């Protein structure tokens, strides 16, 4: 028999766990499936120093354990490591299936599946993750203030990361694999005006150097095939994110890069009544733990009002 729930939360991380905290306190009896990466991107983040309430900072995994424990304290039923692999939003009761074949019928659904950073795919990149390799300058740039650093990418995100770091670091190297930036005109102009940002055209990283932390990079010019090395303190990968939204695309609209689109700006509502979206699955601008938590709160409150209007709670 299918399992019937008032509120199904798909995904964890700050958005999913915050939605669970609010939903459980509102007697919505939420059931949360964490997916294969419980805690989301915070699980590969070391020091988190910009989340309010942690004046001494906290490790990303430890913070996610705090979030999880708080959700569980109020009664959230949490299925750790279990993935929702299929949904059907065609009827008034929304259906979902786990990878093991369990069928869930939900009166409301909060999507909190997040997004995953794209990486270069280097062994040295994995080895030095959180030791000078990062996908978020706003999160980690502070730790490398006063050092020379680099950004990889040629779009708006890479330009924004480079400009942000230019305020903290004496020199920022921007590695662009093409001979032009894909960034918008205004961002290109800002990069040109930034005196301490040096753009390296047709340049790719072959290896990130260092043992206990990043010490430099080995580069290749993809036009001349010339190799070079550069001493650096950090490498910020800014080649994009992939929202984890594939299972919803049949039912919900997305933008050209796969981010879910809210039906009413300023809310978490989608075009399907009773289905709400939070966190990085819909946010390609801010992508911070604090903003994800905020939209998790919004989704739970929107779901609560929906369930009350439907006479379910």
UniProtKB/TrEMBL annotation:
<keyword id="KW-1015">Disulfide bond</keyword>
<dbReference type="InterPro" id="IPR005982">
    <property type="entry name" value="Thioredox_Rdtase"/>
</dbReference>
<keyword id="KW-0676">Redox-active center</keyword>
<dbReference type="GO" id="GO:0019430">
    <property type="term" value="P:removal of superoxide radicals"/>
</dbReference>
<protein>
    <recommendedName>
        <fullName>Thioredoxin reductase</fullName>
        <ecNumber>1.8.1.9</ecNumber>
    </recommendedName>
</protein>
<keyword id="KW-0521">NADP</keyword>
<dbReference type="GO" id="GO:0004791">
    <property type="term" value="F:thioredoxin-disulfide reductase (NADPH) activity"/>
</dbReference>
<dbReference type="InterPro" id="IPR008255">
    <property type="entry name" value="Pyr_nucl-diS_OxRdtase_2_AS"/>
</dbReference>
<keyword id="KW-0560">Oxidoreductase</keyword>
<dbReference type="InterPro" id="IPR036188">
    <property type="entry name" value="FAD/NAD-bd_sf"/>
</dbReference>
<feature type="domain" description="FAD/NAD(P)-binding">
    <location>
        <begin position="6"/>
        <end position="296"/>
    </location>
</feature>
<dbReference type="GO" id="GO:0005737">
    <property type="term" value="C:cytoplasm"/>
</dbReference>
<dbReference type="Pfam" id="PF07992">
    <property type="entry name" value="Pyr_redox_2"/>
</dbReference>
<keyword id="KW-0285">Flavoprotein</keyword>
<dbReference type="InterPro" id="IPR023753">
    <property type="entry name" value="FAD/NAD-binding_dom"/>
</dbReference>
<comment type="subunit">
    <text>Homodimer.</text>
</comment>
<comment type="similarity">
    <text>Belongs to the class-II pyridine nucleotide-disulfide oxidoreductase family.</text>
</comment>
<keyword id="KW-0274">FAD</keyword>
<dbReference type="InterPro" id="IPR050097">
    <property type="entry name" value="Ferredoxin-NADP_redctase_2"/>
</dbReference>
